[in-house]
User: Fold these one by one.
Assistant:
Number 1:
Amino acid sequence: SGSSTAAPLPEEDCMKLNPSFLGIALSSLLAIDLWASKRLGVCAGEGSAWGSARPLMKVIEVSGHGIPWLLGTFYGLCQSDSSAAREVLLNLLFALLLDLVLVAVVKGIVKRRRPTHNKMDMFVTISVDKYSFPSGHATRAALVCRFVLHHLVLAVPLRVLVVLWALIVGVSRVMLGRHNVTDVLFGLLLGYALYSVVEYCWLSPLSAPALFALW
C-alpha cells in the first residue's frame, strides 16, 4: 500500500522532559533554604539589618563552642570530690568528644560550604570548620540540653532557660550567617539523637573501671 510507520527513536535519543519528582523537590528545598538563610542572616555583618546585635550573637556563639565546654567539664572532673558527680562529668566529657568527632566526620563527607555572606571571624576554628553541614554548635546545644535536663535537678525556670539557650544558639548560627537553616535543623536533630547513644554507652565504674581509676 506504500504506507509505513516511522520507527521509534532509540531510548537514549529521547529527550527526558519530565525530571524526577525527587530531583525537583530537592532543588526546590535547596533554593528555599539558601533564600531563607540569607534573609535571616540579619547579623552577618556590621552593616546588616541587626548589625548592632552582632557582638551579643558572638557571645552566644562562644557559649556553644566546644572548647569552653570541654575545658569546663575537664576542670569540674578534676575538682569533683563526689563519685556520682565524677560519673556524670566523665560521661559529659565523653559526649562532647563524641559530638566533635561525629560532626567533623559528617562535615568532611558532605563538604557543604558556608553561606557566602558569612564573615570567617569565628572563635577558634579547625580545618573542617570551613564546611557548614551540620552546625556543630546546634548539635552540641541539643546534646548538652538533653544531658543537663536528664542528669541535673533543676527548678522549672532553669529548665526552661536551658531549652531556650539551646534554641537561641541554633537561631544565632543563621542570624550570624554561619549556617543555612537546614544545617541548624539537622544539627539539632543529630544532637538530640546523639544523647541516646551516650545513654546507651553510659560509662560507669562497672562498665569502665579503668577510666574511673584515673580519678
Number 2:
Amino acid sequence: SALGLLGFASIAAAAPLHTRADAATTVRVMPFGASIVEITCWRAYLWKKLHDAGISNTDFVGSHATPSAGCTLAGAPVPFDADNEGHSGAKVTDYASQSTLPHWLSSANPNVILMHVGTNDAAANISTAKVFAAYDTLISQMRAQNPRVTLVASKLIPIDPALFGQFVVDRLNEYNFAMEGWVKRTSTAQSEIVLVDMVTGFDYKTMTREGEHPNEKGDVFMAERFFPAVKDAL
C-alpha cells in the first residue's frame, strides 16, 4: 500500500514498546500545526472514524485540549481525545528557529505525528526554501526524540485568494508541490513520512468558514483523508 508503513513487521520484535505501533500497544498520536489543527474538529471526526473501525489503541497527545467547546457532527456531540499541539498563528519557520518542538516531543513522546502547518508562512510570503529548511529541522527534532517516529504530513488545504491575495495562494501551491519531493527524499524505512493529499477535492468555497479554516464539511473531508494513513500506521 502506498500509505502503508514499511518495516514494522520486521522491527516490532526488537523495538522498545514506546516506539512500537502494533495492535497490542497504545500508540501516541500528536496532531501538530497551527489553527487548522487547534481550533477545528477534523481530529474529533478522525478519532470517531478510528473507533468506529474498531481501532481504539490510540492516545492523542499534546500540551492542551481544544476546542474547549467540543465538537459536534450533524448536531450531535462527538466525544474524542482532544489533546493536540496546534498553536494558532504559528509558522513552521518559527517552530524551527525558536526550537519549541523538542520540549513538546519530550513531554508527549509520540509514535505518530499528524502535521498540517505552513499556511501562516505563506501568508507572510516566506520562501519555499526557508519553509522546507524548517521542515528539515522539525523532522530531525522528531527523529532525535523517537528514531522510529512516523510523520503523516498533510498538504495544506486551499484558501480563498479574495481573503489572502493571489500571491499567498501561489506560495501555498509552491509549498504543496515541493512537499511531494520532500517526502520522497526525507522518508526512510525506519522513520517513514506519509503524504496526505488535502488539496484534490477540497473546495474552500463550501468547505471553509471564512476562506481559511474548515467548516464541518471541510473537517469531515480532512478526517477522511487522514484516516487511511493513520489506520495503516496503527
